[in-house]
Structure prediction request, 584 residues.
Amino acid sequence: LTGPKVQGPAFNVLATLFEVFPTKQILTRFFYRQNGLHTVNQFADARSLAPTFYPLVLPTEEQKTESAKYSLNKALNFNAKRDCDSKTGRSKHNAVPNSLYNSVTDYACQYSQGKATPTGVLKNVINAIKDSDKQNPPLKIVNELAAEDELLKAAKASEARWKSGTALSVFDGVPVAVKDETDVAGMYTHFGTPHMGMARGVVAEDATIVARLRGLGALIVAHTNMHQTGTGTTGINPSPLHGTCRNPHNSSLITGGSSSGSAAIVAAGIVPLALGADGGGSIRIPATFCGTVGLKATWSRIPETGLVPACPSVGHAGPMTAHAYDAALSYLAIAGPDPLDHHSQHQPVPFILPEDASLKDVKIGIFDAWNDAADATVRTACQSAIQKLLSTEGMKAHKIVLPRLGILQRAHGITILSEMWNNAKPFFQSFYDSSQFGADIRVLMSIASSLTSGDYLSAQKVRTFALDAIEEVFEKVDVIITPGTPLVAAPIPEGSELYGLSDVELTSKIMLYVIPGNMLGVPGISVPVGFDKATGAPIGLQIMAKHWNEAVLLRVAAALEAIIPEKDRLHKPQHLYNPLKRTK
Prediction:
């Protein structure tokens, strides 16, 4: 996709022109034609296709049988003998014994041994969040802390459970952060804006995924920063309540978006788990740019109850962690049917494979023309990682083709903008004037408002075509591997923090590999496999699988952690905290 790169005061002028008659009609039509959105209608009209409005694919009998085989998985129940290394006091599940990052199980091991306490950790987490905003420039990772008195009460209760040997789970007392589009009781859900949360008021109930973690004893510490309304891939946010979140590996770089703060708070070591949401790569992109693991499960696998219903047919909630095993634990904790989300009722039981499960002869699909679009540095790191999987794990590479990805990208653009507009419209038209949004959001919503029901219907017909195509591919391979993004994190342009940034070509390039996961609902995970030597910017690899096959993704991600030394996967971040230090 193409468009002018605009920032600074001129961007506000352009946004106004996009909103007023007659320039709105002229500019939105020009954008529509210039970026070939009309070709989605042409593609759909040339084929006899029924629209698919949600990418819900029912599990096969084989998938149901496999899930039942592992349904008694006890991973969430802490067992010191099984989970902790008696010599180091850290988790046995960490691929690297002396990892830069604490894992979820590291916290549990330290608590069980009395070497750390939830109250001490909580104090360190809060201090780290506050310190991160004293940096120059401030990292702007968190936009709202939970009430400290309530947090302290929860931490003390967790501490008592650990002392009495009655911990609720491996998550008991573990600090967790949540993206600012997911409801947390007693907090505002601002959705990255300065006003949406205030218009709605303090939230009374947790989102389902938050309630599930809280029920396991997790400490829900904060709402993390995000790109305004989730409609962007850079994390640049001109909202005075939020500001632009910066990359802990190099604070001059973007974090990616829209789950910018969730990626950054994990990358900075402040928490081992943060929840994100992904409608167009918004978990996997910032995970790639910040060097974390980011899982977007099968569509409807993880309930959306209590998230802003911004883009229901492409949106997914999911975990962002520093370790692949933590992503697996988090997946087990939050996935599964929710009576309040009827789409979630049709899934097999969530499970993970044993850590020693063989990957021998697992078939990797590689689309060379697609992967070769990545920059040389990214391409080299990803090819090296794939080669290690082949030589060390015995996996097999197969050439594949995914047809008409350009049309699918345009269909996704129409889908997500149409759904975003119809959910944001009341806030644009009723509560306040649209100038309170960043200029980039104003332009996108103006374009979205000009799209027709015919455009949306055609986009869903493209979804039908692409679902059939990817199903054929997965009859031949078990996973598809691509770079996480075709480039490393870019510098934050000067002046963009005040007004936002419009760079359609950069956004389009960043999203190159993520669209099938959202439009087609297949699960995908991003894992760090290298970094740019000049800037320290991480490089990620994306793995996709057939619907409901998250267990395979998580096993491959864990294998990559084990076969690529951490020093080769990650550069030590510029800003890194350790809440487990001196916590008693």
About this structure: DSSP finds 23 helices and 13 strands in the chain. The mean pLDDT is 94.
